[in-house]
Amino acid sequence: MDTTPTDSLNPWLELRRLTPARIALGRTGTSMPTQAQLDFQFAHAQARDAVHLPFDHVGLSSQFAERGRDSLLVHSAAIDRHSYLQRPDLGRKLNEDSAQQLRDYAQANAGGFDVVVVVADGLSALAVHRHTQPFLARMEEHFATEGWSVSPVVLVEQGRVAVADEIGELLGAKMVLMLIGERPGLSSPDSLGLYFTYAPKVGLTDAYRNCISNVRLEGLSYGMAAHRLAYLMREACRRKLSGVNLKDEAQVQTLEVAAPNENFLLKDA
Questions:
Q1: CA dist 266 to 221, 259, 261, Å?
Q2: How confident is the model at residue 17 (pLDDT cuts 50, 70, 90)?
Q3: Residues 257, 262: Cα–Cα separation, whole Å
Q4: Does the predicted TM-score (pTM) go above 0.85?
Q5: Residue 202: is its pLDDT beyond 60?
Q6: What's the order of all strands across the beta sheet hosting 113-120?
Q7: The listed CATH number (3.40.50.11240, 3.20.20.70, 2.40.160.40, 3.20.20.60) that belongs to domain 53-239
Q8: What angle (nearest 5°) sits at the alpha carbon of residue 81, between those of residues 76 and 86?
Q9: Closest Cα to residue 151, out of 187, 189, 186, 200?
Q10: What 3-state class would DSSP assign to 96?
Q11: Considering only CA atoms, which of 160, 179, 167 is closest in space to residue 113?
Q12: Which of 248, 225, 239, 101 is nearest to 175 (CA)?
């Protein structure tokens, strides 16, 4: 009888070092091994927990205050998590009290802002809790370099992406930046998404927004995400647009710069 372990015969095993995807799981008869099945159930539970984790806006507001930045708390038209998940349209707009709160704030702070930063729980409050502060710390360096005026951070409970356009319009923003928890995957329950709109207003579609996704330690780094976003924002100000007509052409030098038309792979060969 051949007692060679099945795993040792699996040519996909080497690829497991390169991806968190569920490949080369092995098998027991016609089924997955017990450990692989338990790992799947654990990842599924993490994803579900991320969706239902309450938004800790109090903790975020305290962290912003420690860094000397004000914040405002508003709420979408979704009254609770159940309605938020069942009615995506309610998460895309503010409730009337919150809309009036922002109108009053805008009236008291005439002139608007270059950038309004919005933070919403989305489908993973876990992502927002983990990554908002370290990412914004990097992004604020670019804000300062460009000389852009930035609003207090607007925290949105039960918010979806489009609510940022309403907030930006109410506050008279030239640009609005939304940080939101993305839909959890089985290997990424804490992925942060960045959505950017130039000249935000109610009714814009996704075609008018730029998205940078998978901002997390195992995905796109804070520094790289901030670099790409800053490029998009500078180009948006120059070209007066965002969305599908604005491409991410940010140059990222990760290797020694080669001379024009020189193939760095052949350098010193």
A1: 29, 12, 11
A2: confident
A3: 10
A4: no
A5: yes
A6: 71-75, 153-157, 113-120, 173-181, 192-198, 209-215
A7: 3.40.50.11240
A8: 90
A9: 200
A10: helix
A11: 167
A12: 239
